[in-house]
Specification:
It contains 16 helices and 17 strands. Strands 1, 2, 3, 4, 5, 6, 7, 8, 9, 10, 11 and 12 form a 12-stranded mixed beta sheet that branches. With about 475 residues, it is of the alpha/beta class.
C-alpha cells in the first residue's frame, strides 16, 4: 500500500471532531457566469449575457466551511450587517451543523459582498459592496467577550483578517493576548501590511503577494522568500510564517531560521478563489489534532492542489484530497474477501459489515465507519460498483470511479477489506461474507436493512448508528 495515502488518511481521521474557533471578516461571494459575444454600443465594454448566479460563503466563513467539511467542529464569530446578504450568508453557513455561528450584527453596516463576473473560468470584473471602517468600541467589546468565552471550548484559534474592519488592531491585540494566556495555538491569515498587529501568533499565513507588500521587496527566489519570512518571524515573535506561492507550492519559515519548501504538485489551475482559506483551514485542523507542523503543511499543500482545480470559493473534502494523492486499489473480488473473512472467523475475530456508494468520501462517512469499526475486530465495506451507483443515483454519478473509491476506503486505518458489488443491494455479498454485525446509519431501521436476517439468524446483530448531519455528496 502507498504509505503516503495511508498516512494522510490517518491524519484526516485524527482531525475528526476537534474544535476550532474562527474569528474575522465574513463575506458573501457571488459569482455571475455568462458569455460575451459582443461589445456594448454605449461604451467599449463587453456585454455579459448572464446564464447562472451562484453564492458561497467567503472570508472567515469559508475557512469555517472548509474546517467543517474536514470533520471539525467550528465556532465562527464574525461581523455582518442586517441585510439580504447577511441572510444569504447565514443560510450558507447553517448548512453545516458542525458550525456554531455567532454573528456580530451591526445595523446600517453592509455585509461584505464580492460579486465576480466570469466568462468560462476567467474573471472579467469584480465589484465589492462593503465598508472597511473599523467597528466601534461597543462592538469591539461584544466581539472580544464572545471570542474570550468561546476560546475555552476550542483547541485552536484562527484569525481570518480580510481587512474589512471586523478586527481593529486593539481587538487583535486583546484576542491574541487572551488566547496565549489560555495556551491556545493561534493562526493569523493577514491582509494588512503592518503585521505588528499579529505579534506573538504561532503561525502567520500570507501569500507571496502579501509577503512582498509586507516587506516591500520583490522576493523572486525561494531563498529570498524564506529569508524575508524568517526575519518577519523574528521581528514580530511569530513561531513560523507559512508563505503560499501558487504554482511554486509553499514555504514554511521558522523563527530559528529553519526552512521547509514543499513544491506544488502539477495540476491545472482553474480558480484560486478561496484557496488560501483552504490552506489555513487544513493547517488549523491538523494542528488542532496535534499533528506535526511539517506534516500539516504537506497536507495543506495537497488540499490547495484540489482547491485550485475547482470553480468558485473552494471547499475540499477528504475524498477529493485522497484521490489527488492516488493509491493502488485493493483486491475487491468476492472470493478473496470471503476467504479473508473465513480466516478471521477461524481465528476468533468478529467481522462488521457496512455498505454504500462512498462517492466523494466526507466527514459523515468517516464518522459512520469509525463507529462501525469499533463494534468488531474487523471492518469490511460493501462498495457499489460504478454501474450500480449510476442506476441508483443517475447518469451524473459516480463522481469517482469504484477503483478510486476502493483505494480511498482501503487507506483508512480502520478499514480491513473492500468488496465491490454490481447489484442494487448487497444481499448476495452479505450471504457470501457472513459477517457478525451489519452497521447502518439511522436513516434505516432494522426492518429495512438488506441482509439483516442473514446476520441475525446466525446469532449476529444489526447496529444502527446516528449519522453526522450536514454532510452529503449531493452538496458538491
Amino acid at each position: 500500500m502507498n504509505s503516503n495515502i495511508y498516512n494522510i488518511a490517518t491524519l484526516l481521521c485524527s482531525m475528526q471532531a476537534k474544535k476550532v474557533l474562527v474569528l474575522g471578516d465574513i463575506i458573501l461571494d457571488r459569482f455571475i457566469d455568462g458569455d460575451v459575444t459582443r461589445i456594448s454600443p454605449e461604451a467599449p465594454v463587453p456585454v455579459l449575457s448572464q446564464s447562472r448566479v451562484s453564492e458561497m460563503a467567503g472570508g472567515a466563513a469559508n475557512v469555517a466551511c472548509n474546517l467543517a467539511q474536514l470533520g471539525i467542529n467550528v465556532h465562527l464569530i464574525g461581523v455582518c450587517g442586517d441585510d439580504d446578504s447577511a441572510t444569504a450568508l447565514e443560510n450558507k453557513i447553517l448548512k453545516y451543523p458542525s458550525i456554531h455561528f455567532e454573528p456580530i450584527r451591526i445595523n446600517n453596516r453592509p455585509t461584505s459582498l464580492k460579486t465576480r463576473f466570469r466568462v468560462g473560468s476567467q474573471q472579467i470584473l469584480r465589484v465589492d459592496d462593503e465598508t472597511t471602517n473599523d467597528i466601534d468600541e461597543q462592538d469591539i467589546k461584544k466581539f472580544l467577550d464572545c471570542a474570550t468565552l468561546a476560546m475555552d471550548g476550542s483547541d485552536l484559534v484562527v484569525i481570518s483578517d480580510y481587512a474589512k474592519g471586523a478586527l481593529p488592531t486593539t481587538l487583535l491585540a486583546h484576542i491574541i493576548e487572551r488566547a496565549k494566556t489560555k495556551q491556545k495555538i493561534v493562526i493569523a491569515d493577514p491582509k494588512r501590511t503592518d503585521v505588528s498587529a499579529y505579534a506573538g501568533v504561532d503561525l502567520l499565513t500570507p501569500n507571496l503577494a502579501e509577503l512582498r507588500a509586507i516587506v516591500n521587496m520583490p522576493l523572486d527566489s525561494i531563498e529570498a522568500i524564506g529569508e524575508a519570512a524568517t526575519n518577519l518571524a523574528k521581528t514580530h515573535q511569530f513561531n513560523s510564517v507559512l508563505t503560499t506561492m501558487s504554482s511554486r507550492g509553499m514555504i514554511l519559515s521558522q523563527h530559528n531560521g529553519t526552512q521547509f519548501h514543499d513544491p506544488a504538485s502539477a495540476r491545472a489551475i482553474f480558480d484560486v478563489s478561496g484557496a488560501g482559506d483552504t490552506v489555513v483551514a487544513t493547517v488549523a485542523g491538523a494542528l488542532a489534532a496535534n499533528i506535526d507542523l511539517i506534516k500539516a503543511v504537506k497536507l495543506a499543500n495537497h488540499a490547495a492542489g484540489v482547491a485550485i482545480g475547482k470553480s468558485g470559493t473552494a471547499i475540499v473534502v477528504p475524498g477529493e484530497l485522497l484521490a489527488l494523492i492516488g493509491n493502488t486499489p485493493p483486491a475487491t473480488d468476492w472470493p478473496s474477501v470471503a476467504n479473508q473473512c473465513a480466516s478471521w472467523r477461524n481465528s476468533g475475530k468478529k467481522i462488521a459489515f457496512t455498505n454504500g456508494c462512498f462517492d466523494l468520501l466526507h466527514a459523515g462517512h468517516i464518522h459512520l465507519l469509525t463507529k462501525a469499526a469499533n463494534t468488531a475486530d474487523k471492518l469490511v465495506i460493501g462498495l457499489n460498483s460504478d454501474t450500480s451507483v449510476k442506476r441508483l443515483k443517475g447518469d451524473s454519478r459516480p463522481l469517482q470511479t469504484a477503483k478510486t473509491r476502493s483505494a480511498i476506503l482501503a487507506a483508512l486505518p480502520f478499514v480491513d477489506a473492500v468488496a465491490i458489488f454490481d447489484e442494487d443491494t448487497p444481499f448476495k455479498l452479505i450471504e457470501a461474507l457472513q459477517p457478525d454485525f451489519i452497521i447502518k446509519g439511522n436513516d434505516y431501521t432494522e426492518q429495512t436493512i438488506v441482509g439483516a436476517n442473514i446476520v441475525t439468524e446466525r446469532g449476529g446483530k444489526v447496529i444502527i448508528i446516528p449519522k453526522l448531519e450536514g454532510h452529503s455528496t449531493s452538496n458538491f
